[in-house]
Amino acid sequence: MKRSSFLILFLLLIGIPFWLLSQKKEAPPNDIPSLLKDYNHRSVPYLSVQMLQMEYKDYVILDTRKKEEFDVSHLPGAIWVGERYDIDKLSNIDKEAKIVVYCSVGIRSEDYGEEMLEDGFSKVYNLYGSIFSWKDAGYQVVDQNNQPTEKVHVYSKKWAKYLKTGKKVY
To answer: Which of 40, 45, 138, 151 would you call most buried, defined as having the most Cβ atoms within 10 angstroms of its Cβ?
Structure first.
């Protein structure tokens, strides 16, 4: 009996640490490319911030964040449409227009872009890295009065690490 008790105790002492190690969760991605790889399906073609900057006037730019995020800052000339898709908010937009959707990093905007594509908008692009990558590339964002600002709403503390420049607002 002592031998079997010793064996069970030994197996528990060895087995429990290995079991605990196997329960360790993966660390969240540390950069936007890894984040988008993990969360997005690439169902909406990406457009780089550099390409948008070069062809800015050719696109209708839609902000798919919450209103309070948009009010802190947004891309110049962007139209706020919110997180929840509503075809009525898009009634003045030509379905053949070149459209860029963005959010904080590009996850919510992909969902919005998917709905647009399903509704017949044919040239919808998801801004790669969204407003965080736009700001980190040194491009201008504006506040609700269309004045340049360094502030960017980071959605939550969890997402704040993905913005490298500007003043973070929660």
So the answer is: 40
